[in-house]
Description:
With 257 residues, the chain is of the alpha/beta class. Helix 1 packs parallel to helix 2, helix 4 runs parallel beside helix 5 and helix 6 packs parallel to helix 8. It folds into two domains: 116 residues, no CATH class; 101 residues. Helix content is 32%, strand content 21%. The termini are far apart. About 7% of the residues have low confidence. The chain has a nine-stranded parallel β-sheet with strand order 1-2-3-4-5-6-7-8-9, with no helix packed on it. The protein is elongated and about 60 Å long. It contains ten helices and nine strands.
Amino acid sequence: MKRPILELHLTYSKFTVPYFSYLSRFRNIHKFSLTGDSNHFAPTIEKTLARVLANNHCLSHLFLHLVARWESTLGVSGIERVFPMKSTKNVALRHFSLREGSIIAAPHIFHHLRGLKSLEISHIDLYHESAGFWTELAQQEIHIPSITLRTQSVPSAVIDYLISNEGMTELMFEVESNIGNTAKRVLGEVVPRHSGTLEVLQLTSCWGRHWILDSQLEYMIGVSQCTKLRVLGTVVEGKDFMVCNIPLSYAILILLF
């Protein structure tokens, strides 16, 4: 008898070792979504969760929301402790979403990411801790068609990876700080580099002005080169000086399309 494909969506504040021990018995989990308090993710639980991944090679969708408690001094769980270290077979991940938690360049995780079609990372301080991860993705030539990043700021290694990410079709990019002249690099290097493949482009900023208003010429040049663009997302913040410029943003879009 053929086993059914399982989709598990779990939300709980205090997962226990026995709980994950039962989960590790499954061999046919296709989609796995886990939301929990990272302060309760003891090393034993993380190892058990890694066994869940190692035992389910057909796992294609993984969503981890590892919530951190402000009052705790414990470190936030990271993906390096969730992926199996000694697995002889790759997890067949196609879609990976990480919300909060942490992300570092642990060598054993990258062969599990080689088949990714989409990567979404949000509410993680990429600027201070993730440069090695993105550098390793670029060096190992792990190309991911759809990238979604929501963070406060990004190191130059993130932009370098996006430039090297051959075949990128979707980019959703939301940052709160323009440290390192992020806007100029994205519009002047990332977008033109993928002008022949980008189908979805959404650039959102929170530093007081939107890309379309703050960098009009660069925005027009970059976006106009995207010959396959199907969706262009734009956000105008509700501040008085921004509202006054809404007609200008519309005019720019009309010129482009």
